[in-house]
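STRUCTURE REQUEST FORM
Protein name: Signaling protein
Source organism: Methylorubrum aminovorans
Requested output: structure tokens
Priority: standard
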Amino acid sequence: QAKGEGKARFRIFEPALAERVEARRTLETDMRRALKAGEFELHYQPLVDAHSGRVTAAEALVRWRHPRRGLVSPADFIPLAEETGLIMPLGAWVLRTACTDATRWPNAIKVAVNLSPVQFRDDRLPEAVEDILRETGLPARRLELEITEGVMFDDEERTLMMLSRLKAAGVGLAMDDFGTGYSSLSYLRRFPFDKIKIDRSFVRQLPADAESAAIVRAIITMGSCLGMTTTVEGVETAEQYAFVASEQCSQVQGYHVSRPLPSKDFVAFLVGQKAAA
Ligand code: C2E
Ligand code: MG
Ligand code: MG
Ligand code: MG
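Status: completed
Returned output:
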């Protein structure tokens, strides 16, 4: 009877699985084509100094301008790019494009680039970063790499070695989506991060929710005690902005300041800010 059941289940699930495999294969082929066709683009979201309100950096966020599907968000293709290894050429393209774009920005505004844990697993990453800085002419201090807690799990010794090599290259290191992983506290002490980016899940219910407020306040205090700056992500309202600024965070990012903008619009945003100041 158990055998019979197994067969029935197999028959029910087989088509769905085959369909899924097929869909992934199609997407993979499509991504390879898109990379060659130049369909990926970077949008930039301003990060402002919490006190002056001035733009001091921008985060590069990749999008896929698909001929039929329109603008595709990274959540819909980064995971598959990571599984297939396509994240390596895509990630290199992102890094090179972001550094090139940033050389054209005024006031030594920094560019923040997200690194996939898969890119981080490649020992040659620090040299690749240095090569791109040399090729594009962007000073290392103007590049910041955003790394999620995910990379910390692999192998602590190796992680420390990789982060130290990147740090020695002169780039900034930010821990992204802080608070969503595990063992965050020991990692902060152990690894040479310059910045903590507080995940937007802690911001959503600010300023009304006392527990969210306590967590954000505690992370900002801890960061500053450990010599790290803090960026609060996902600030969507004036009330949230006022709260996090009053809590002495260093930097604010979120729809309240600006959505991620196509490169051209980001530069226009900078010009507009300057005019307003
Ligand atoms: P992330 O690095 O945490 O980036 C911040 C995400 O939050 C972005 O989503 C941004 O558009 C969104 N966001 C910013 N402000 C607000 C806000 O006020 N409210 C809300 N609801 N959302 C806000 P996006 O662009 O869809 O990117 C999602 C994730 O995809 C990123 O999260 C990052 O993990 C990944 N990603 C994006 N670009 C790259 C890339 O070039 N390489 C890699 N490896 N990952 C990338
Ligand atoms: Mg990020
Ligand atoms: Mg983030
Ligand atoms: Mg995130």
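Reviewer notes: The CA atoms of residues 157 and 163 lie 10 Å apart. The first helix runs from residue 2 to 37.
Form closed.
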